Amino acid sequence: MLVDDHSIVRDGIRLLLEQAEGLEIIDEANDGEEALEKLKAHLAEENGKAQLPDIILMDISLPGMSGIQTTQVISKHYKQVRVLMLSMHNNEDYILRSVEAGAYGYILKDSSSDEMIKAIRTIASGEKYYSSPVASIILSGYMQQLKKSEKNSRVERQSKLSNKEKEILHYLIDGMSSREIAEKLQLSVRTVDNHRANMMRRLQVRNAAELVRMAVEEKLI
């Protein structure tokens, strides 16, 4: 199914795709609302044999309901239908929102007809497809999210340690034994050992060596 609010664009895409072997365009829609109505109609055909499209080529900028919002609805209610975004926007926000909405692919409107057909066939096989500039943006966004997640995890682990435990951990990193730390802080050896055990339990490490390594690598103190 082709979804684009410009009939001349749909005509051009149809002309290109009809020349490709094994591809059949079963419907078109001018906007998101019409696309959803047509999906309902295909699902309720009188002969009982639903002919839902395998792939929807979706323009991202549509009047009313956007391509991203439409994709979100399709991903939720028509899980067997895969959406390939077609957009003029090489923009991180549009791309990442499309991926989060459930799009199986994202290509730019200045892509070649060969790439469009390749993207359609790739998605039809169950894989995802993003043109090279888009893939770079997705990877960059993923790495930023990963760094943010790692930072949040480190802050969470830091918050699990009391000031006294951080002080003991500092001396453990310096290579001091429990007895030396106890003398330094004027505590009993048992108290220091209890603090060590509590830290290992909360940070989910098995021994003092792992505790020290985590503290150093993740800058817990």
TrEMBL record:
Protein name: Response regulator transcription factor
Domain Response regulatory: 1-124
SUPFAM superfamilies, sorted: C-terminal effector domain of the bipartite response regulators, CheY-like
PTM annotation (4-aspartylphosphate): residues: D59
Any Pfam family matching the protein: GerE
Highest taxon, organism lineage: Bacteria
GO molecular function: DNA binding
Keywords: DNA-binding, Phosphoprotein
Xref: InterPro entries: CheY-like_superfamily, NreC/VraR/RcsB-like_REC, Sig_transdc_resp-reg_C-effctor, Sig_transdc_resp-reg_receiver, Tscrpt_reg_LuxR_C, WalR-like
HTH luxR-type domain: residues covered: 154-219
GO biological process: phosphorelay signal transduction system; regulation of DNA-templated transcription
CDD domains xrefs: LuxR_C_like, REC_NarL-like
